[in-house]
Amino acid sequence: MPMEWPEGKRPVFVGAGWTMIRRYMPRTISSNAKEAATMAIKDAGLQIDDIDGIFIWANPNWGGGGPDPRVWLDVNHMMQVMPWKNIKFWLQPEAVAAGSCGGIQTAALALGAGVVNYALVVRTGHHPAGVRYRQISSNRAAGNGAFNLTYGHGVGGAFQVVNYQPYLHKYGAKREQMAGYVLTLHDNAQDSPPAVWRGRPITEEDYLNARLIAYPMNIFDNDMPCDGVLAVVMTTEDRAKNTPHPGGYISGMSALPTHLRKTGIDPTLENLEQISRLMANNLYDASGFGPKDVTCKNVYDGFSPMSWEWVEAFGWCEYGEAPHFMQPEIIGRDKTTGKWGPHPVNTSGGNLGNGRVHGFSAVMETAMQMMGTAGVRQIPNREVAVCETGPYNSASCFSCVND
């Protein structure tokens, strides 16, 4: 059944802000947070005092699992970096399944319920100098770890290989076909102001000869851990009339049904296809539209094979067709003519082009495309958007419309 909001209370995007996304940025998280929040509020045509709700997914990439201010931007931290006066509600979901879309989902629900009037949703990425991404330091390998940690199969891209290799075999695809998608993202990133890869284009030869991380994935198939903060501002439909460029009225949301995820070192390819399609169908049921209606597509690509799975799960192409679908002539933009292909995907460059900020690049790009503020990246048709963030075991998504 389609999602319904009280009259005049449809949540909508009204502003976006960011810092540069860089590896080992010589700035504090506090400084980055203030810059991104200030820019988003200004973009919305608002003042700091207008913001009365803050929503953050603060899950840290580093540290001992606690709120270490050196590596983690939580709500308490965010409240200290700006001269807020009217914050009356905040929420910080800790479940990994919430992901970057979780902040949008919770902010939308708070706005629709009248708990807040203007919501700031923010996400940080941080990669301390001298630390390798998710480096395994334990000297024990209990449970499933006995089958993966002992072989260096601890986290990140290595897990994707368990399903990526069966995908290539099942559908007769080649790893070389992934170059079309990765190069498209790097091309899109050249027009994305905060992107870590902006000004550093790569070639097909660079991709095919890149250092392998876990066969058949190379370093360009894994997003770069970075420093940076991204933020969006949301309000309700009635209040948005007084802002410069509202766009993207939230029409639905869903999350991955992890209770159907089979246990083990990793679920099978077929199991992933099943639960991913179920999440997509739940989103369509909540939104009242189908795959062919979606004109703005942003999906999580912290690791490149995920992108193939998500476009198939959302029904934008059939199973096994993603290697052909995710090519520049279909999803990219011709820099000579400025025209997008028939199905633009991850128009800002996604995680692989922008850098690891946990999928919030997809969130912010969705907001900017729907507000019509994406500049040279702007797609011509911004009627219906789907945004998904998170990997196979922790995905969530939302849809929004302009009508």
Tell me what you see in this structure.
This protein has 403 residues and is of the alpha/beta class. The protein has a single domain (11-131, 224-401), classed as 3-Layer(aba) Sandwich (Peroxisomal Thiolase, Chain A, domain 1). It has 14 helices and 11 strands. The chain has a 9-stranded mixed sheet with strand order 3-2-4-7-1-8-11-10-9. The longest helix has 19 residues, at 269-287. The protein is globular and about 55 Å long. It starts with 10 loop residues before the first strand and ends with a strand.
**Low-pLDDT segments:** 61-67
Strand and helix order? EHEHEHEHHHHEEEHEHEHHHHHEE
What would CATH call the homologous superfamily? Thiolase/Chalcone synthase
The number of domains is 1
Gap from first CA to last CA: 19 Å
* Strand residue content: 15-25%
Mean pLDDT: 90
Query: Biggest sheet, in brief?
Result: 9 strands, mixed
CATH architecture group name: 3-Layer(aba) Sandwich
Number of helical stretches of at least 4 residues: 14
Give me the side-by-side strand order of the main sheet: 3-2-4-7-1-8-11-10-9
**Percent helix:** 25-40%
User: Briefly, what CATH class?
Assistant: Alpha Beta
